[in-house]
Amino acid sequence: MLRDKFREFSRDTSSIGQERVDAVNGLADALIAAGHSENATVAEWKDGLNEAWADLLELIDTRSQMLAASYELHRFYHDARETLAQVQHKQKQLPEEVGRDLNTAEAMQRMHSAYEHDIQALSTQVRQVQEDAARLEKAYAGEKAADIRRHERAVSQAWAELRGSSQGRRRLLLDTVDKFRFLRAVRDLLLWMDGVRLQIEGQERPR
């Protein structure tokens, strides 16, 4: 990766360069201390060298910061797109069937609980995208800031839709299970009443 290569280059260059600059500074100091006839020229060259070295270090630092910022922005775009794709995938996985009887409805209810637990893991990724977008927006302006906002909004809207759909399905399954439980209770009670009626009708009538 370019950022890592430049970081390595920066570290090596700073280390090697500093050794060489220190060595030349040492030579210059020794010449000046020995009272060399060209002391003024040596001092001037020493100052020029140190100034050029400081400029180079600043250039390396600026380049490192630019690469780090660029890497962070590209990572945000990648994370936002990946999170959006996962949220949309989960939305498509949401079934519409609610079950034909109590057993299947209860089975679907259990499956939906597992599904909700599954999508809850996505909330961390969504929150990270939102936090990164808020931080990056402060560092950028104009079109880039608008693009960051656009990516974050797409993720947040898809997440809100998924949560809404999931909650709606949970309520629907709960209503379906309650309905089937009620129908089973009614059926059991009617069967019991039929049994009592048969018992009554089966008894001998008084003469």
TrEMBL record:
Pfam families: Spectrin (PF00435). The keyword Repeat applies. GO terms for molecular function: actin binding. CDD domains: SPEC (cd00176). InterPro entries: Spectrin/alpha-actinin, Spectrin_repeat. Keywords: Actin-binding, Coiled coil, Repeat. Residues 112-146 form a coiled coil. The keyword Coiled coil applies. It comes from the Eukaryota. Gene3D superfamilies: 1.20.58.60. This is SPTN2 protein. It comes from Probosciger aterrimus. The gene is Sptbn2.
